[in-house]
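Action item from last meeting closed. Structure (166 res):
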């Protein structure tokens, strides 16, 4: 199973996902932003509280052999992508629209449109929408098991169900 299929397997589905996507699409249209023709991931990270902890992802590319990944990441106002880190992946976030509060390596930063934050491997990071926000992630290829979430209740990544966090 490829990484996108693994991510789609844990994506939120049903009426809540449909409502979130409709609201998201209205915001994207208001911003006049073009998105790729791919299936979006509506993620609640298995916590069942999408409006508080979650995001919508559009995978542009995850070219493992070529060594790169590109994704659009969207959060609603007050919605958080949970605190996590990656053993291998280096990523850079670029704020396309809106504002976010970023937590990075124990520091809190606010980034607005045009803001850039490189994230080194093994540094904890998360972000929360200050209003709706759209980010572009440019990174090494995405590997679902290279996610180490601070919250052990998140059912993906290496920390799930007692898997090693070393």
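Sequence:
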């Amino acid at each position: 199973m490829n990484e996108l299929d693994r991510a789609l397997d844990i994506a939120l589905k049903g009426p809540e996902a449909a409502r979130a996507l409709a609201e998201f699409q209205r915001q994207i249209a208001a911003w006049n932003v073009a998105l790729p023709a791919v299936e979006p991931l509506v993620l609640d990270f298995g916590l069942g509280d999408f409006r508080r902890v979650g995001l919508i992802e559009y995978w542009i590319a995850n070219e493992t052999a070529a060594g790169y990944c590109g994704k659009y990441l969207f959060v609603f106002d007050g919605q958080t992508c949970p605190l996590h880190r990656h053993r291998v992946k280096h990523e850079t976030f670029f704020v396309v629209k809106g504002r976010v509060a970023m937590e990075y390596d124990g520091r809190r930063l606010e980034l607005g449109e045009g803001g850039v934050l490189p994230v080194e491997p093994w540094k904890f990071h998360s972000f929360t929408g200050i209003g709706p926000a759209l980010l572009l992630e440019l990174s090494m290829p995405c590997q679902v098991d290279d996610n180490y979430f601070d919250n052990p209740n998140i059912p993906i990544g290496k920390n799930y169900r007692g898997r090693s966090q070393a």
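Note appended to the action item: The chain has two helices and eleven strands.
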